[in-house]
Amino acid sequence: MARIRILPDAVADQIAAGEVVERPASVVKELVENALDAGASDVLVELGGGGRTRIRVTDDGAGMDREDAVLAVDRHATSKIRQAADLIGVATYGFRGEALPAIASISHFTVETTPRGTPEDGTRLAVKGGRLEDVGSASRQPGTTVTVERLFFNTPARRKFLRAARTETRAAVEAVTVLALARLDVAFRLESDGRVLLDAPQAADIRERVRQLFGAEVADQLIEVHWRAGPLSVAGLVQRPADASPTGRRAYLFVNGRPFRDPFLIRAAEAGFRGAIAPGARPTVLLALALPGDQVDVNVHPAKLEVRFRDRFFVERTVEAAVRSALRPLAAAAVIGGGLGELGGQAARGADVSPGTAGTAVPLSFFAPEAGSPLVATAPRRPLLQVFDTFVLAETPDGVAIIDQHSAHERVLYERAMAELQRGDAPAQRLLLPLTVRLAPDELDAVDAHRTELARVGYAVEPFGGDAVILHTVPNPHPRFDAGRCFQELASDLARGRFGEAHTRLERFAATFACRAAVKAGDRLEPAELQELLERLFACNLPPHDVHGRPTIVQLPRAEIERRFRRG
Amino acid sequence: MKFTITREKLQEGLVAVAASVPTKTTLPVLSNILVEAVPDGIRLSGTDLDIAVSTLVPAEVDAEGAVTLPAKKLVEIVRELPSAAVRLTAASEQRVSLECGRSRFKLLGIPRDEFPSFPPVRFENAWTAASGDLQKLIGHVAFAASTEESRPILNGVLWELRKDQMRMVATNGHRLARMDVPASGGRQAADFIVPPKALEQIRRLFGAADEIQIAKSENHLGFRSGQTYVYTRLIEGPYPNYEQVIPRDNDRVAVVDKQALAATLRRVGVVASDQTHRVRLAFSGGTLKFTVSTPDLGEANDEMAASYDGEPLEIGFNANYLLEILKFMPTDDVRITMKAPERAATLEPSGWDDPASYLCLVMPLRLVD
Questions:
Q1: Which terminus has fewer CB within 10 Å in chain B: N or C?
Q2: Is residue A470 classed exposed, middle or buried when 0-12, 13-18 and 19+ CB atoms within 10 A define those classes?
Q3: What is the pLDDT of residue A364?
Q4: Which residues in chain A have Cβ-Cβ distances shorter than 8 Å to B342?
Q5: What backbone phi and psi angles, to 5 degrees, belong to B155?
């Protein structure tokens, strides 16, 4: 007797459901994606009992006629591709033709649909556990409503794995959130047991969408990314380093308008923040990648959560560079008062969205990245004022920049120290009267361990017996530099691992050295020194952020000043 | 208090004293000048608490007394007065009227009790020195003192008085200047560490031909010539043993033209890094080559003739240190001695026809090949 048999379709559908439909949120995702593929401009999601008792997705998309509707619940029936070749550069969310039959096979499933052209042709279709129960007429506006009830009624094992209703609701909200970020031209609304949890009308730009979804506070902390390298353009929003905290971050990636997950790319984006963010802080990032369809394969995961890049190293490198470039302009500095995304000259270019053009296609130009080169922050020119012997005030095109002199100098010295550590050619001044410095045992160990780095930045250290070392040469980074004190503080910091969480040993050393060698708060600086400090700061890679992730520059926008004086 | 004085004499006295008045101070009375009417004239005094200057100018005193007046305003008024007798009358300690020709001013002063008293320096057993010798020492050495706050002792100039000579030494730990002048007078040996600011006043106030009396109290030094006094706080502590670091075995000797060396250093220094001004000097045969290389900026090369017959030597310096020293070198040619790239180099005048002896020392910068 033949032991190998073709499985009945119903069983195959249930197996497929295991891959595609993990929890109610997966159903929400698949149904909303279908709505978007159908060209909807308004999508309503209703949940009952966290999606366990009921999920209903209503759209105003193209709808289906009766024949199509019946076919749609059959496996591998799809309107989205016709042949294998269409898979390359596929622009719709769905294409596998698996979702509807899979969902229908494990629920009480109802479709009501009316095609756009013939409003009288409404169809109502009921499927239970994959079995077509009823096909009839219905009357409704053009579009489709899919209702999924009693999800997993016939798969008790899967039902048992469901979490609390609140958890499942949260997952469903997240699924809609991701799609709402991808499609600014569509209005999304999610209700759970009658409560509105998400309400996002069509948005003019991504910042507005973020404001709708996460609130104004989050939206105001984000700075824009516009970057292009070869075929790849990266656009989106990242958090100001100073606002990033270890918790509460959000990370979203999209490629050609399609959301995907990729911890390595997130890590590459975080690498763009290196040396500008507090250790352990995790910045929010929303990045949309656009690149030709043949450079990326989206058909590697049943739920299409992952994608594969042809040149993954290039993509990671570009994402890192894109993030880094965004942190450079003055606009990346923290702002006082009403958060305006419009600082730093042209930073806030309108991120216009091209709405889904060809009905079912996902818009490829997502945040409409401009191919322009990154903005370059220029040093403020107007006369400078030092206040509290700690901060420097300077006029910028859009307001007043308040600069922390220590942080600024630290940033300057950090970048120089990194270069010197790699080249090993820091100017080291030989001393006429060598300095003798006494150290604690752990500090002596730390100095021994960092002898090479110390020599590279200019300290020639020689043991002097007992607990002392002798300095024959010292660096001389600025006229106020106190070589002996800097060395002692450096030894103490190195011994106690004060910068222990910096990424590499060199960065750690450079950050420690920069912190200790920089002018301190309370040092009165001459006007010429202020000018030079600012010029050097703005010649750095990341002027607005110091090496601890604190802000170097805080901006008082002109609009905010005008508002306070009611000149607005 | 009431006196009459010529505008010129008043101006002369104010100019001498005004330079010791601090421009910024937290103690308001310090921005004032103390005006005391005494039988043989008026005594004007100013101080910033570290240094005090006091001078007596002849005047016709009708009533003795004292008051303090804002230095800046007083100097400005007197500068603009016509050349005529100036009459100053104090109605009270704080209300002073000043009349000159048809101009009348009323000034508000601060009572003299608030003005700090001068250190009690007694000139009975004073040392003496020729003002010309002091000016020469100060002019060649004081520049080398440190301006950093980390080693206060180096902020001063060491002044050694000996039986038959005087010496000044100053260093900031990177470069050093030392000068000896022969001086007769059979004085008692003494060492002082004096703030350069005070030395600057001495150089400015006393004429080259004056003889200056110098006396010490516990921690102050007083200088006097005629009726003008300068007092200064002394910096305490042992001065580092500079003799030990002045090289005696530098066997590579170059003699170069001072102007040409300075011009070349300034030229290649344009592309040197802002802070350290590192320049590489290569001595070989009859030429001295200069190289500057600054990452992110660029390079410069230059060369000049030099009389040098030692082994070839490459050594790095802070160009600014060399330029500064060259500015004070009294001769057209400069004698440079060296030993090795990591050892101190010295610069001396070459062919100087002067009883004084002058030596500057500069520590090299590390070179990386």
A1: C
A2: middle
A3: 34
A4: 430
A5: -75, -10
Number of domains in chain B: 3
Q: Is the pLDDT of residue B324 over 70?
A: yes
Q: With beta carbons under 8 A apart, name residues in chain A contacting B295.
A: 419, 423, 425
What is the secondary structure of A13-59 as a DSSP string? HHHHHHHH-SSHHHHHHHHHHHHHHTT-SEEEEEEEGGGTSEEEEEE
Residue A477 to chain B, least CA–CA distance (Å) = 6
Name the one residue in this structure whose structure tokens are 């003496």. B128
Closest CA of chain A from B364, distance in Å: 6
Q: How far is B185 from chain A (nearest CA, A)?
A: 33
Of B273, B318, B368, the CB nearest to A429: B318
Alpha-carbon span B13 to A380, nearest angstrom:
46
Closest partner residue to A419 (CB to CB) among B176, B278, B295 is B295
The model's pLDDT over B79-131, given as tens digits with 9 standing for 90+, comes to: 999 888 999 998 877 789 999 988 999 998 888 888 998 888 888 888 888 99
Would you state the pLDDT for residue A353?
30
| CA nearest to B149, candidates A364, A484, A134, A224 | A484
Structural domain contains residue A394: no
Burial state string for A198-216 with b = 16 or more CB within 10 A and e = fewer than 16:
bebebbebbbbbbbbbbee
Whether residues A107 and A126 fall in one domain: yes
A216 shares a domain with A301: yes
Question: Do residue A432 and residue B295 have CB atoms under 8 angstroms apart?
Answer: no
Q: Which of B148, B275, B364 sits opposite A430 (nearest CB)?
A: B364
Say how far apart CA A347 and CA B165 lie, in whole Å.
70
The shortest C-alpha distance from B241 to chain A (Å) reads 9
Q: Are residues B212 and B316 in the same domain?
A: no
CB contact under 8 A, B174 and A431: yes
Q: Which residues contact B37 (CB under 8 A, 6 or more apart)?
A: B1, B2, B3, B59, B61, B63, B64, B65, B66
Q: Are residues B91 and B8 in the same domain?
A: yes
DSSP-based three-state secondary structure for A316 = helix
* Least trusted range by pLDDT, from A206-220, A237-251, B242-256: A237-251
* A419 shares contact with chain B (CB less than 8 Å): yes
Query: What tokens appear for B348 in the block?
Result: 């001396």
A187, part of any domain: yes
Count structural domains, chain A.
3
CB contact (8 A) between residue B365 and residue A477: no
Q: Which of A430, A485, A535 to mutate to test the interface with B (most CBs of B within 10 A)?
A: A430
Please tell me whether residues B63 and B131 are part of one structural domain.
no
Nearest CA in chain A to B150: A482
Q: Give me the mean pLDDT over the A178-187 stretch.
A: 91
Domain range spanning residue B185? 127-242
Question: pLDDT for A331-346, tens place per residue?
Answer: 667 666 544 433 333 3
What does chain B come to in residues?
369
Whether the ipTM is more than 0.85: the answer is no
Domain CATH code at residue B279: 3.10.150.10
* Percent of all residues in chain A with a pLDDT value above 70, rounded to a whole number: 83
Ranking A16-20, A49-53, B335-339 by mean pLDDT, the lowest is A16-20
Inter-chain contact B275–A458, Cβ cutoff 8 Å? no
Size of interface A-B (CB pairs under 8 A): 66
Q: Are residues B329 and B348 in the same domain?
A: yes
> What pLDDT does A83 receive?
67
Question: Do residue B368 and residue A424 have CB atoms under 8 angstroms apart?
Answer: yes
pLDDT in tens, A501-550: 555 677 778 888 888 888 888 888 888 888 888 888 888 877 777 777 77
Total-model pTM: 0.66
Over residues A404-439, the pLDDT tens digits come to: 888 888 888 888 888 888 887 788 888 888 888 888
Inform me whether the C-beta atom of residue A445 falls under 8 Å from chain B C-beta atoms. Answer: no
Rounded-to-integer distance, Cα A450 and Cα B317, Å? 26
How far B155 CA sits from the closest chain A CA (Å)? 14
CATH code, A297? 3.30.230.10
Which residues span the domain enclosing A344? 206-358
> Chain B closest CA to A472's CA: distance in Å?
10
